[in-house]
Design brief:
Length: 158
């Protein structure tokens, strides 16, 4: 995972192949979330306003503008969105929703079981590392603490 630099309320990350994959898988998971609001976990995340579809599109457009070895800078709102997206995506991969996602991806021919497991493992490892870095940068931030409280509420559902 590339180093991150916090400057004021902005966070900069040098884009590596792994980071780009983390972002792309997160965005794909976000699109899955939008298409499947019938799961309790997703409904609760939406109710808690942890995930907004407009933010996903903006996040995707912002990230597409940068290539490997460039430095991308996120403002605090983008980081809070990305953090929430990572947390929610990890939960999805680790519960019955992830099983449904795997089944849909295999049935559609997008992947096979081995590749899905490989991608999921990669994502969970990279997400955990990036989540820890964000926590380290924002642990004293009031908005981040509010987001963590929402995540705790979401955890009580799971």
């Amino acid at each position: 995972m590339p180093p991150i630099v916090l400057y004021g309320d902005k966070l900069s990350v040098k884009i590596t192949r792994e980071f780009k994959q983390l972002v792309n898988i997160s965005i794909a998971a976000g699109k899955f979330i939008l298409l499947h609001p019938d799961y309790d976990l997703i409904r609760e995340a939406m109710r808690l306003e942890m995930f907004e579809d407009e933010r996903l599109e903006d996040f995707e457009v912002h990230n597409w503008q940068f290539e490997i070895d460039e430095v991308i800078t996120y403002d605090q709102k983008e980081i809070m969105f990305f953090y929430a997206l990572l947390e929610l995506s990890c939960r999805i991969f680790l519960c019955e929703i992830g099983d449904d996602l795997k089944k849909m991806a295999i049935e559609s021919g997008e992947t096979n079981e081995e590749e899905f497991i490989r991608v999921r493992s990669f994502f969970l490892t990279q997400a955990q590392e990036f989540i820890q870095k964000i926590r380290g940068c924002y642990q004293d931030d009031e908005h981040f603490q509010e987001l963590l409280a929402k995540i705790d509420q979401l955890n009580s559902l799971a």
